[in-house]
Amino acid sequence: MQSNEKKVPDVVVKRLPRYYRYLRELLNQDIKRISSNALSKMMKVTASQIRQDFNFFGGFGQQGYGYNVEYLLNEIGDILGLNDGETMIIVGAGNLGRALANHNSFAKRGFTLVGIFDNDNRIVGSTINGIRVMSDSEIENYIKENNVDIAILTLPHAAAHEMAQRLAKGGIKGILNFSYSELDLPDDIPIENVHLSDMLMTLSYRVKNQSKTENEE
Fold first, then answer.
1. How far apart are CA 112 and CA 65, in angstroms?
2. Comparing C-alpha atoms, which of 34, 99, 20 is closest to residue 66?
3. Considering only Cβ atoms within 10 Å of each terminal Cβ, which end of the chain, N or C, has fewer?
């Protein structure tokens, strides 16, 4: 289903994977249909917010009839590009890169890991989760020849910017960036930055303030 011409807010886009995850769980439980009220109780999002989010893409439901779970799951999967069979590579085969390469839930979401790259000759030629690690000197040609969609960047900060430029030159369509480096690339290459320490500090703040609240009660 096509979205309307109004730009979809980032906050709505960020909720779509969560909708997708909950709908998969419902389908696995053989639940065929769900109302916005029932979905709101599961997700701790108001029914009104759910309807507003879905209206950016045409609505999906029928008044008094609710949502067909399988249909809605497929529609959101289509919006997220999951039904297209996205291909991805990992750049950096250190501890984090290895952990991500062995994270089998990517395939369940429609992402196919097709290549792993590193510049360490001790790692190049080894196999991770059935995929041979290639030299990063091959990366531009590999992206072009295999029409790779997404690169997961797990390099150190100092090496990330140059590699991002090479990925862009090779024709990568999007980057998931674990490098703690702010990448400067053309606007037509989406970047999602994952700052694990920032997330941990945010959690620490919430824990600290939750403790204060409990002590005040």
1. 36
2. 34
3. C
Q: Which two tokens stand for residue 147?
A: 């029409």
Q: Residue 58 is part of a domain; what is its CATH number?
A: 1.10.10.10
Which pLDDT does position 16 carry in this prediction? Answer: 94
The pTM is what?
0.79
2 occurs within a structural domain: no
How many independent structural domains does the chain possess? 2
Residue with tokens 């369940």: 108
- pLDDT for 2 equals 46
**18: phi then psi, degrees, rounded to nearest 5:** -70, -40
- 26: containing domain: 10-79
Task: Give domain status of residue 51, yes or no.
Answer: yes
Mean pLDDT, the chain cut into blocks of 10 residues (217 residues total):
65 93 94 92 91 86 78 92 89 96 85 96 96 97 96 94 95 94 90 89 88 62
What letters, b where the CB count within 10 A reaches 16 and e where it falls short, cover 90-125? Answer: bbbbeebbbebbeeeebeeeebebebbbbbeeebbe
Instruction: Walk across the sheet containing 131-135 and list its strands.
Output: 127-128, 131-135, 111-118, 86-91, 150-153, 174-177, 191-193
